Amino acid sequence: MTTNANSKLVEAWKKYYLGIDAARQAMEATPRFRDNPDHRAQMYYSLAEAQAMAYNFAIAPKVDQPWFHTHSWFSYFYTLGGTCPDFYYGTLFLDGKRSYRITGRFGDLKLILMQVFSHLLGHPESKMLMNADFSTFKKNADGSFEAIISATRQEGNWIPLDPQSDYNFIFVRRAIADWHGDRGELKISLIDGPIDYDELDQEKMASRLETAAHFLKFLVDKWNIGIYDMYLEKNSGKKNVVVVAPGDSIASDYAGSPTTNYVWGVYEIADDEALIIESDVPEAGYWSMQLFDVFCKPFDFVNRQSDVNMSRAVIDGDGRYRCVIALKDPGVANWLDPSGRKEGTIVGRTYHAKSMLRTPEIKVVKAADLRKHLPADTTYLTPAERQRALAYRRDGYMKLYGD
What we know:
Blueprint: H1 7-28, H2 31-34, H3 40-59, E1 90-94, E2 100-105, E3 111-117, E4 128-133, E5 145-150, E6 158-160, E7 168-175, E8 185-190, H4 202-234, E9 242-246, H5 251-254, E10 260-268, E11 273-280, E12 286-292, E13 307-309, E14 320-326, E15 335-336, E16 343-351, E17 361-366, H6 383-401
Parallel strand pairs: 5-6, 14-15
Antiparallel strand pairs: 1-7, 2-5, 2-8, 3-4, 3-7, 9-10, 10-16, 11-14, 11-17, 12-13, 12-16
């Protein structure tokens, strides 16, 4: 069979296609896939998700019409790397030879961060250029702000680009503690346009396919496989313990946020057990505690309470808060629902913290004895109250992203 396709295009497709199977083999080689049948279907789900994200991040974006892609990383559709339900995420892909203007306002947002990379994650030349914290930007009297994104330094609020890259990757985090709140505004416009870009050009499509192959490998090696392994390593190979670590320790290699302190751990419980996480309430601009599966995908946080945060957590009378991981709803207000998964990961986030959080305490108890291990003033919910809380949760998320 003959083809008129550009040879680079054909080779790029082959590289991408082979990368998918290499990713499958790497994930199947992990002990958590090999030794635990409960995780196998989820592994293939995550592998398919990595392919979808490779398209969303490397193939689909149009650099000649920049806009904030808010449906590239959200809900339970595109979540690898561990999305936080309270973050209204966005992605941008910009040509470093051009200049752009960003305008917006905070609304009820707790923070706006822009983590800038010279290329999409996984690209051989990708490096972090800046983590722009909009809370430090100069603002107008009405609270609105403006910033310039360009390779050339500008006066005032400025975010740098790599002039040698025509596909700078900007990862946007916007935190909102109550999904029913005002998510603010963020808009971008091209200053020195238009950009002449033909998405059907064979050479450019070959380049995008190569970028997709690099990104897919990054997703699987660093996130699907690597984050779980890192959590265990940080805790000396032990489960049901956590460690507190600064985000800048993984900002470059894993795209973690350098503005936060993380809580990391792997939990494992039996059918008749419950795990209690006891922690100080952080003095911070934003904080939360959340559950993920063993391949760094969040448990369903739209329809289940797999997280608590500064707005939703109930604080006990002693000024601390306690979360409970249990397979069945124990009635505790701060229940972290693991979606029936006996093993998964724990992730806490503390942004703009005034001090480093003390390491939370972990205790595994019999589910039948749970109340004996919790304060007398612990808040419990009836089944009807739980359903109302979940309905409020679903409605808020639909409002945040649009129904």
